[in-house]
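Structure first, sequence second, as always.
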């Protein structure tokens, strides 16, 4: 009798353990209905059409209060054109950026979202959930935030005021390490990340990226050395680059050393100067024909002996 009872208890414990393991995610998650004819691809999330997903508790927002402005995903029935976007904006929605497939991230109130959803070319609107805002690198296999103790993250905000973000940083005793445009670098305890994800002003949270220079890698990937060994290094050739500008925009000693003496002419299209306030044009020109003068020959472009004609196409107005 005792043996049978012991076997029964053992079997019952096994069943309970297996059941618990199978339902771990649902015990600590809330369901969220996704209703769209197309799949939406977010960082770390693929929202398949017509499904119910489980999101970690504390990272789900069921609804906004009346008049509260917050981020939504607007799902369209098909290819999106300017007429559709203008109709959505006319109602009062602020379109932020395209999200594949056939969706837009938008800022609006629940009243505006309700009206947008009545448009014939819109299939649905849904709240851009706090769970969607956190990088997969900060989560465990169940989608819960990892307990990494003190970490450094980059918090990306939507355009507009970040007063609530700054206030929350102070509330959790976080340390603000840097800020540029809508990106803030913060050192804090990971246990507080959910609070930031729930702020309507926050768009995404990720581990602070560590940047490294890889400008001397591209030529190797393209096997340019083999071409150079045959004598093809741009000598006698003229390259035209159209981009955001070129360094100082003046063909004299103030110009980046990699281009000095090889610029034939520069043109400013729609602007008064050909300088580079963005940086992209200078980077591209270096990849094309920088001769490595500024790095003792280590970092140079594919045609280091070519001449350059540059046209700036960035309108600063």
């Amino acid at each position: 009798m005792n043996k049978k009872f012991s076997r029964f208890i053992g079997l019952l414990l096994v069943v309970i353990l297996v059941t618990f393991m199978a339902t771990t995610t649902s015990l600590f998650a809330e369901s969220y209905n996704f209703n769209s004819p197309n799949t939406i691809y977010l960082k770390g999330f693929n929202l398949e059409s017509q499904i119910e997903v489980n999101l970690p508790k504390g990272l789900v927002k069921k609804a906004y209060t009346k008049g509260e402005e917050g981020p939504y995903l607007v799902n369209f029935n098909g290819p999106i054109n300017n007429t559709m976007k203008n109709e959505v904006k006319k109602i009062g929605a602020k379109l932020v950026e395209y999200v594949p497939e056939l969706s837009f991230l938008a800022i609006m109130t629940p009243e505006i979202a309700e009206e947008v959803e009545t448009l014939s070319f819109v299939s649905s609107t849904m709240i851009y959930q706090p769970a969607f805002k956190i990088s997969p690198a900060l989560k465990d296999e169940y989608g819960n935030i990892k307990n990494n103790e003190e970490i450094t993250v980059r918090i990306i905000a939507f355009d507009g005021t970040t007063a609530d973000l700054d206030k929350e940083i102070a509330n959790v005793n976080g340390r603000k390490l840097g800020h540029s445009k809508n990106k803030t670098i913060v050192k804090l305890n990971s246990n507080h990340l959910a609070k930031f994800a729930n702020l309507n002003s926050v768009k995404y949270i990720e581990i602070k990226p560590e940047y490294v220079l890889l400008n001397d890698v591209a030529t190797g990937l393209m096997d340019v050395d083999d071409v150079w060994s045959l004598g093809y290094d741009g000598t006698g050739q003229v390259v035209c680059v159209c981009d955001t500008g070129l360094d100082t925009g003046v063909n004299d000693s103030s110009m980046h050393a990699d281009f000095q003496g090889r610029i034939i002419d520069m043109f400013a299209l729609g602007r008064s100067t050909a300088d580079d306030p963005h940086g992209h044009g200078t980077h591209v020109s270096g990849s094309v024909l920088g001769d490595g003068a500024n790095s003792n020959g280590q970092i140079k472009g594919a045609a280091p002996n070519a001449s350059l004609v540059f046209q700036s196409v960035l309108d600063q107005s």
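Margin note: The longest helix spans residues 2-22.
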